[in-house]
Amino acid sequence: MWFDAAPVPAAAAPSGTGDGGPAAGWARHEPPDFLAGAGPGQFVMLRTSDLVAGAGVAPSAAALADDPLLPRAMSYHRVRETDAGRQFAILYDVVGRGTAWLARREPGDLVYGWGPLGKGFRLVNPGQNLLLVGGGIGIAPLLWLADYAVEKGLSVVLLDGARDAGGIFPAEHVPSEVEVVVTTEDGSLGRKGRVTEVFLDYFDWADSVYVCGPNPMFAALADIIRAHEGPGHIPRRKPVQALLEAQMGCGTGICYGCAVFDRRGNPRLVCKEGPRFPLRDMW
């Protein structure tokens, strides 16, 4: 499937859309719909390759250059309704050739991809109070979840942590109903420290918890929760859903390139069984 790329203005991305910083873009797509059946926490696979010369007006996937060969997995960041139909956004750090290629797209450029993929956040009976925890670019899929929760009349606290102010999502682009708590490791914005250090200030308030970020953050949160709950709280544990990140070759469970091991040592495919897993099952 093809869609038109349309990078957003710098003000709508954490640090603009230049190389080396976070970037964002809205996509206008034609049927088949990239959003059919999609929900917060799911993702799309995008080929970050140029079209070969002479590809024609209606190119196929075979018209893509084979370098880079593997696609990039990108979570749905936000969804909006427009006169032209539904559009989705992705948010990413420019860290390599693939994301640098995406950041250079202009409105009307074609990008090949497929989705929606994976198992997103489970939103059945989430309770009234939702705690969202994002570490670095892990904030990306939590914004659609925040939008969804606000529309349902739920209460939301968003913990947004990063190394410095440049990695924090702009609060003015978060729904005003959401309480945003910012932490930076260098103290350049919000509270100084890591997002894990303020987690327990809101954990007991929450009915359900949704987290996305780097693996060390997941491990730290799992340790904090176990120490806080104690073994006697096992029957009453509140759900804590972790949205994992992994390098993927296909996004459909064929290549096994995204396999990880859970706490019991069992292999799990992030693309097909996840990316949403119970945090306590994995760490």
Describe the overall structure.
The chain has 283 residues and is of the alpha/beta class. It has helices at residues 97-103, 142-151, 200-203, 215-229, 279-282; strands at residues 2-7, 22-29, 43-47, 72-75, 78-82, 85-93, 110-117, 129-135, 155-162, 179-184, 191-192, 208-212, 240-243, 259-261, 267-269, 276-278. The chain has 2 domains: 2-117, Elongation Factor Tu (Ef-tu), domain 3 (Beta Barrel), CATH 2.40.30.10; 129-282, Nucleotide-binding domain of ferredoxin-NADP reductase (FNR) module (Rossmann fold, 3-Layer(aba) Sandwich). The protein has 5 helices and 16 strands. The strands form 3 sheets. Strands 4-3-7-1-2-6-5 form a 7-stranded antiparallel sheet. The protein is globular, with a radius of gyration of 19 Å. The model is unreliable at 7-21 (pLDDT under 50).
How would you briefly describe this protein structure?
With 283 residues, the chain is an alpha/beta fold. The protein contains five helices and 16 strands.
